Amino acid sequence: MQIKTEGAIGAMKVLGVTGGTGSGKTVVCRMLKEQGGKIIDADKITRKLQEPGQTVYNEIKAAFGTDVIAPDGTIDRKKLGAIVFTDRRQRGILNGIVHTRVSQEIKERIKKYREQGDVPFAVLDVPIPVEEGFFDTADCIWAVVANDDLRIARLMGRMGISEEEAALRISAQMTNREYEAIADVTILNEAGTEELKKLVLFELKRFLAG
């Protein structure tokens, strides 16, 4: 099923989608892409900014040392993740390095898509909701949530990590209640792909018509 989006072109709306790891946020964004949405993936932008030679790369190396640098010279995201998911202070340092530059890139892409004039809506795929580049940019915010047991099982299957590590990653992020509190719409992802798609299409129609 394809939702008609022609009426939205020229007045491009911006939908912010957030949610914790294992919630299914990426699946929701994939469904929105199938409906014509331009996905702006904050994680992909972050990875690009962390490539060797980039300012963010240099700042991360200076802050966390060579232990987080892989043999090929790239940032070892697994080692870096192990540090920041267990230490709130270190997580704050990393977020301080990354967030401002990611926000700037997000705003530049939105500006580009608006100027194109043929994009019905843009989707901000953002795991950590922040003011600049998310709340100040999105017309509507969706929070994708699922219970922790289901999220743990998804992470174990997808990442090949232990139940303990999966639970640790989830506990380092916002709770479902916290995500729901900042959202205009909650997308509950516990009933399978077909039910999720029905909910996404229903809420997308409401968003585009609003």
Outline:
This protein is an alpha/beta fold and 210 residues long. The chain contains ten helices and five strands.
What key phrases describe this protein's structure?
alpha/beta; 210 residues; 55% helix; 10 helices; Rossmann fold; five-stranded parallel β-sheet
Commentary on this structure:
Helix content is 55%, strand content 12%. It has 210 residues and is α/β, with parallel strands linked by helices. A five-stranded parallel β-sheet has the order 2-3-1-4-5, with helices on both faces. Helix 2 crosses helix 5, helix 3 packs antiparallel against helix 5 and helix 7 (148-159) packs across helix 8 (163-171).
What is the secondary structure topology, with strand pairs?
Blueprint: E1 13-18, H1 25-34, E2 38-41, H2 42-49, H3 55-64, H4 77-84, H5 88-116, E3 121-125, H6 131-135, E4 140-145, H7 148-159, H8 163-171, H9 176-182, E5 185-188, H10 193-209
Parallel strand pairs: 1-3, 1-4, 2-3, 4-5
Q: What structural category do the secondary elements indicate?
A: alpha/beta
Please identify, by name, the CATH architecture.
3-Layer(aba) Sandwich
Regions with little confidence, pLDDT below 50 for 5+ residues: 4-9
Helix content: 40-55%
* Named CATH topology: Rossmann fold
CATH superfamily: P-loop containing nucleotide triphosphate hydrolases
- Major β-sheet annotation: 5 strands, parallel
General form: globular
* Overall radius of gyration: 18 Å
Number of helices: 10
- Total E-strand runs: 5
Number of domains: 1
Query: Approximately what portion of the residues adopt beta-strand conformation?
Result: 5-15%
Order of helices and strands: EHEHHHHEHEHHHEH
Distance between the termini: 20 Å
